[in-house]
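Could you please consider the sequence and fold appended to this message?
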Amino acid sequence: MSTIGFRPCDIEDSRVQWFDTENENDAHLSLPREEDSKAGKRNRSGKISPEAARVFNYWLEERKEDPAYEGTDAVWLNQKNKPYSARSLRYQLMSLQRAAGMNVEERENGWYMIRRGVGTDIINKEGDIITLMHQLRIDRYETAMRYVMTADQAADRYFSRR
């Protein structure tokens, strides 16, 4: 669900009921206040792309056939039938990168990398800090501004990490 920009702790806590993907063209995430990982504890929401909604709906159909998911609302379970943790999913992410021939030692890895990628994409395509704050469920303007940089700043950062 790369269009959501989950925080690592949200990976393990994610529940099927958070996702409204029935209408794939108007799909969204609704995180209830009591399950919000942020200290402010409030209801949070964000849009889900039609493509991500289709993939998620496909997964829901596959999930129905797997007895491991009977009686649980967890979105993803590992081989031990426990919800994936951010750490174990990071390991999976790095394994996929290695299999694709990517040098995982020379690049940032993990869920915050994906979250930052979502934020940067929103800013680059929309240029709207409010959209960024809503989609990534960010409360503080100063925090959201971390995703905004000039082209020169972005290039310098890119070259320094290669």
In short: The mean pLDDT is 80. The two ends are 26 Å apart (CA to CA). Residues 120 and 149 are 9 Å apart (CA to CA).
